[in-house]
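WARN  no MSA supplied for this record, continuing single-sequence
INFO  ligand: LLP
INFO  echoing inputs
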Amino acid sequence: MSFFNYSDGELHAENVSLSSVARDYGTPCYVYSRAAFEKQWRDLDTAFGDHPHTICYAVKANSNIAILNLLARLGSGFDIVSEGELRRVLKAGGDPGKVVFSGVAKSEKELAFAIQNKVRSINIESVAELERVQKVAASLNATASIAFRVNPNVDPETHPYISTGMDKAKFGVTMEAAYDAYQRANDLANIDVHGIACHIGSQITKTSPFTDALEIVLNMVKRLSEKGIHIKQLDLGGGLGIDYQGETPPSAEAYVQSMISGIKAHGIDLPIAIEPGRYIAGNSGVLLTQVEFLKHNASKNFAIVDAGMNDLLRPSLYQAFHTIKPVAEESQAATQVFDVVGPVCESADVLGYDRELSVQAGDLLAVCSAGAYGFVMANNYNTRPKPPEILIDGEQAHLIRDRETYDQLLAGERLLP
Ligand code: LLP
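INFO  complex generated
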């Protein structure tokens, strides 16, 4: 089910035509569907049935506070990786008691902020970090609730840049080190061992990497329990993939049920947390852009658009495929094969190679599946202001982030005296 459909000859987000969004807010801009975000979140929530669980939405995927607020209203928890993300969650009305804090190098200042705000779990990624958490918690005369993020060395079978659970990755504590690390944590005065966490990668389109990792995690839970260390929450990370280009990832139901049956098979009945980002946000947004010029050379046709790699980095960074659709369903223009390229001065500034399109200058295009890791990875390369974000709710369009101005972009820079 998509919330971006053609109706009356035009692509709409819910009941709002994308041409009206372009007219009112200009291009390039990100356009999200509230109903899409909510449906994706609810699909995961419903799949758990009555199994105790927390959906900790991965803030990094799309961190606009309006989006976080929508999810908080549904009862969502959050997976954060920085103090900045925790500040966003708090500003959006999220419950810090449902927050898990991941990341390989949390600073003392970030840890203090998280401990003071009583996040549910600081997911520790090394023994050195454990010592840092103990030190910060002791200085605050507080107790830090922690998990170790373990690295099960399982291949998630995804792009190497988004694989995190293999032993060549910087993430997590190896299984060999984890057992000793838990014993050390158990001995520390200001540490409360809460859980175990594992995140093996992103855009995973099969169930088996998840269940393979789960088996390894469950064996550790059992070993620890024999030592008197009792885990209270299994945090199984994010990573569930979406359909960008005909991929067929497991459904929310199949994904969640595979985990619940995995733990039941071990006679373990622990609450589960998951950290989905892309699954909730990815197909809930598009990047709307306008064709500036068509250009033809000996071997290529180019559709030069007003959005570039600074607005949507994924195609350039990961060779990621995003479907590109014309906003007008019908066109008088001849169909040709185009590279859809942006205005940035880099040859890698390509949003899509070899796309068959009927377009002319002035036409609008929607770069699909841009709700996750789209705006959040936007940058100011070539001194280009970041695009606005618009959230569609039924018939209503809400501007949830202004287009950046040149004054904002240059604020903070100074000439020498
Ligand atoms: N939890 C942790 C600890 C993570 O590192 C991540 C993503 C997630 C959860 C959420 O994963 P998801 O459910 O979204 O797959 N920029 C890349 C993706 C980087 C993912 C980083 N970590 C992209 O555009 O594909």
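The first strand starts at residue 4 and ends at 7.
INFO  checksum written, moving to next record
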